[in-house]
Amino acid sequence: MQTIIKIFISTALSISLLSSCNKYLDVVPDDVATLESAFANANETQAYLFGCYATMQALTDIRRNAGFTTSGEVMFPYPLQDQTTLGGGGGDAGFSIMRGIQNSANPLLNYWDGYNMGINMWQAIRKCNIFLENVHIPLDLPEFQRKRWAAEAKFLKAYFHYWLIRMYGPIPIVDVNLPVNASIEDVRIKQQPVDSCFNYVVHLLDEAIVDLPPVIQNLAAEQGRISSTIAKAVKAEVLATAASPLFNGNRDYAAMKRKDGTQLFSQAYDESKWQLALTACREAIDAAAAAGANLYQLRLSGGIVHMSDETRRMLTIQGAFVDSWNPEQIWTLNPQFGWQYMASPRVTADAAANVFAVYSNFSVPIGQSELFYSKNGVPISEDRTFDYKNRYKLQAGDDSHAYYIKKGYTTVKGNFNREPRYYADVAFDGSVWFGSGNLDDNNPNYVNAVNGFAAPPDQLRYNATGYWAKKLVPYQTTFGQTSVQQNYSWPFMRLTGLWLLYAECQNEVNGPGGDALLWIDRVRERAGLKGVAESWSQYSTSPNKYNTKDGLRAIIHQERRIETAFEGQAGWDLRRWKELQNVLSTPLQGWNVFNRTTEGYYQLRIAQQTVFGVRNYLYPIQDYDLLTNPNLVQTLYW
């Protein structure tokens, strides 16, 4: 091990890939005998496998997820005078990237080295390799179990590589750990072309799928472990990512080559990649159906006083995400979501009086709120019946919106005549909040932001835009002098997201002539909307939009962003589509939340300036790693 450490000091990548055992697993000292004891029997071997799962579980902290923090869906208010008091502790690193302070000297969300809210993925991959190299040792481990556990480790290793590819593009492939006597040159491994990286991940997933169970039978003991259904769904997403503009013939990275001249990004667009993704999506959908996946049906707790059909639909839309382990959730991870108090407004006097109960810092920009459709199921800027020009004018809540907006409360016209997912996912000044101790939607709680519930005087625990990610807070959660959270496990994939991924692939392969509309409409039906063809034909200023490949692509992209809003998915989608630069090309806006008059509150203001260019689509490798491993090349434009 001392020899290894001497080699590791010579290269930062090697430190990441081959660091000493006790750095990543506290129970394993630096000697071979202890490594052997870790695989002495089935129980010890399973414990080591759970250690491989640990990195995956840590990814449920959405502050670590670029798909959430850099998506433009949510911002974190700046400046914060006391980050430590707020529990920040550097946890806002991902949000800071949108402000343009990413750098190569000390990268934010550094998953290469494990700094600034990143996790060292090379160590996680090394754990998986150690497991695969030693899972044959325990004599009391049945062969069928050995195969399954090895398949789980292969899946995890594939996913960790995939996570790195999405962030850095071309990466080294670490299929096996290097031997103790590896030379310095062997340790200084090179990045592989993007296509090779994706092919490796798919190959590992294919190997894993064969030996994984289609469903987890023993939920009490094994809930959260990987099934073949999950692996097939991930394979579909991997292939769709490989087929997307960021990685498929991206001329922006034509100059990114290895030092031996190897082209790291293929410059030829390959439509067949979409066909591979389409086939994988279909297989994943069929596997999910066979495993019992279906749309969520609302499961209510006791104490309901009155619930309208409108409220029931909103809770069904929200419950598909926050009601853990329901049949719509294809892949859910065990750790509980711990940031509800960041996503919730203060809807009771108790919550307003206790500033430590609710922070509200996850602030939804107005641009994100305007992404959701009108009640007619088309973009509000396209709806012929929606008063888009006057959407910031004031209007009082009326009878027809009584279950969405407090009757008689003055808010902006843009909050009226919107689709049910808007009211299920987003809270705003004047919006009804079913829950938080009040289960009567005839006399509900509501958001009273103008009177200070959005922004307390300390200017620390506040929402910077006047919009909240309501989707992330179950109705059973209550904040106040004594807070009670309805905790839930974080879903990584839902059935509706898979349907929309299939629709996307269908359109890319077959255009409007395929069955893409069928799958989009299944998602829309649950949301209380008419089908795409009927909605656009009747209400859109572009009634034939869905009849062209480009038009249908725009519809699918917006539908997917709405359906998976705040789930840590949009940021990844916008990157692979090369559309994140458009979303972040203008400042994030909100209302004048510290003003205590209705007229003063509803003044548009810049909540945060954003900086995002072509170089931000992929992350920089830390400069020190390039110095210690001269075979690495920096991400282009950094």
Automatic annotation (TrEMBL):
Residues 356-638 form the RagB/SusD domain. It is found in: Cell outer membrane. The keyword Nucleotide-binding does not apply. SUPFAM superfamilies: TPR-like. The keyword Signal applies. InterPro entries: SusD-like_N (IPR033985), SusD_RagB_dom (IPR012944), TPR-like_helical_dom_sf (IPR011990). Keywords: Cell outer membrane, Membrane, Signal. Residues 119-216 form the SusD-like N-terminal domain. GO terms for cellular component: cell outer membrane. Pfam families: SusD-like_3, SusD_RagB. Its main location: membrane. Belongs to the SusD family. This is RagB/SusD domain protein. It comes from Chitinophaga pinensis (strain ATCC 43595 / DSM 2588 / LMG 13176 / NBRC 15968 / NCIMB 11800 / UQM 2034).
